[in-house]
Amino acid sequence: LTVAELASYADVSAVATRSFLDGSIRAFLNLAGDPVGQPRYSLRHQSLRDLLSGTCPHGRPDLQGLAGTFAGQARPANHCIANALIPPGPPGGRDWRASGALVKDHLAAHAAACGLLDDLVSDPGFLVIATPGSVLSRRGSLHTHEGRKALAAYELSLREWASLDGRLRGEILAANAARTRAGSLLSACAQSIATQWPVRWAAWSGHGHRTLPGLGGGVNAVAVGRAGDRDIIVSGGVDHSVLLWTYQTLHPD
Question: What is the pTM of this model?
Answer without folding.
Answer: 0.71
